[in-house]
Amino acid sequence: MKYFYKNLSIWLIIGLIGIVLINVFKKPPDDVIHVNYTDFLKRIEQGVIPDIKLEGNVITWTNSNGESFKTVSPENQAVIAPLLKSRVNIEVREPKKPHWFLQIFLSWVPFLLIIFLWFFFTKQGGEKGGGGKAMAFGKSRARLIDPQESKITFKDVAGVDEAKDELVEIVDFLKDPSRFSDAGARIPKGVLLYGEPGTGKTLLAKAIAGEAGVPFFSISGSNFVEMYVGIGASRVRDLFKEGKKKAPCIIFIDEIDAVGRHRSAGGGGGGNDEREQTLNQLLVEMDGFEGNEGVIIIAATNRQDILDPALLRPGRFDRQVMVPLPDVGGREHILKVHAKKIQVDIDVNWKIIAKGTPGFSGAELANMVNEAALMVARKGDGGKVTMDIIEKAKDKVMMGAERRSLIITDKEKKITAFHESGHALTAWMLPGADPVHKVTIIPRGKALGLTMQLPEEDKLSHSKSYLFNNLCILLGGRIAEEIAFGDITTGAGNDIDRVSDLARKMVCEWGMSEEIGTITFKAASPVPGNPGPIISEATALKIDGAVKNLVNSAYDTSKKILSDNRKILDAMTQALLDHETITTEDIKKIVKENS
Description:
The protein is an alpha/beta fold. Helix content is about 50%, strand content about 10%.
């Protein structure tokens, strides 16, 4: 109703302006009788015109009956004189002049334009902040979101029930604060949402804006920092000033790590650094000498580990909510939420799809559903999304788009087939490894071929044997090339990189090496001024030896598996060359026929 009256008032103003313009430019009725110049001269000769009024070349007079007449005399009488002698009927018209209103308007245009430009560049931020105003660098750039315009609610958020419950309490407090104050409880001043990218942190903030029904300010952490020292701190002050005016309200700061990184202990600009001044002002505003009652701060970040400790202490961000990757139930719920927007075949089983997408974030699941809808749209037959289309969309999201136009020689294709068969066969034979879901030699992204494994259930921790199996599987591709051709290629470059990283973590971070023991040797800390533990040269040599022994052991294990099952390796390679893609059922059949 508010917007109805607002729009109605705008149209009324436009209508009034239109009426005024019509009245201004409307030609008034003319009661003066126009006479041509020849008739005027005849009347002069006849003496019927007693007196005249001359204004420029316009002549007016009135007769005895009170009628008004007007004529226009030519400016150059010498040209007209011969024509008068020839008794030509001459009518002289008055030169057209612009309307008086237009004359005044044109004379004022430059001045009005200067006033408009000055007003535009010096206008204060208002409700939407001062972003983009030349004279308002220190104004907040936060965008005020009207609760009535936000259509996203908690019903649209799935897969993160625990995080949602934490935020529902914030919304309940804003709707009914007496319920908490009567019990002596104090609502958290700040809530920090952290987790991996794509898990739904910003979506949760949008849901809060839709549910709370209070003013909601949204801003990115990077909007505070400028090249001029002090601008960021000024924007923080202005943001909280606006928040206090509209309390109770919510201020959402997305990607807060852009301004809230760990402050340097020594160098790096110290207190004069623009980012650190901004952070200091943010700390003061959140829990300084003056209180901010009714102003709740919600922030989101992917990098909680690099935030300043002062920002994370109770009294500032009292509540830190992890937004995790969804489990199988959460993934199913997320898929059903996004499936409401597309045409889905009745045979689609979202539970099976959820089981086949372990490790997917909410954003990746949404992207997968959208890719499936795009595939249907490309066909143009008005069909529905089927299980087969969703499977193709999943492959595209997980492995990249197919590159069928890439020209590959028969030799390279055979090398790729042996390489992927080495991965797949090693994984098939190792007990406890994730089941092989699909093997393909169709190029996708940067890879010439891919072996996809899907765990049977979500895993929150991994055993040493499981990680060792992964080392064997990663090395299986290189070993298969060596067995089949007696040579190796650069195709195993990414595999070796992942093997090195995994083996070093097993030794240095997870205490899975007998030579090193249960001691952690982490890499250098990303926090300035904290380089991490110092490792002696002797210990570094022991770490290198332990990593090498672990990789060599995995190499020997994988080589024995592939050598003992060479017949299966060849058959699997031939199946890939014939069909380009094989699935679990195909592998079962190959292993059974060649065992």
